[in-house]
Amino acid sequence: MHGSDLLSSVLGACDPSALPSYALSQLAAGIRRDDASLLRKGAAELAGLGIGLTPAGDDFLCGLMLAAWFFLPDPVRVCAPLLEGARGATTTLSFAFLDAASKGHASSVWCACLRELKNTRTNTVLQEHMTRIVAYGATSGADSLAGFIWGAALMEPSCQR
Questions:
Q1: How would you class 74 by CB atoms within 10 Å of its CB: exposed for 0-12, middle for 13-18, buried for 19 or more?
Q2: What does pTM read for this prediction?
């Protein structure tokens, strides 16, 4: 099992209160309205949320940034305000990961998944790579996957509810 409350919430497997609703509403509105201020506010609420060198909220933001790089024509419009919102609110190491994600950088496991997903665009690809993504860190992989899935639901027209 992945041990991530964030991923469980995104997948509908547990109480959605594990996700900070104010932060998510700010992020969702920021993405839908292309509003940098709302994106910064949402990121500031999530940054540093959780324990460890890369808190769960930061990992979620990294996954969200990967979704932006995957689905949006101009991902910097989402990623730059997210990074600005997280500045000063988390660990130095985690901010370095956020900075890398804001520029479209990801681990080799994520890169392999996204490369294959780009070629086939089926949920099966993501499911096949989930085990390897979730295996990263205590919950970092699962939390970043939660951010990616949540972001995909907002950014990809075929995924929108």
A1: exposed
A2: 0.86
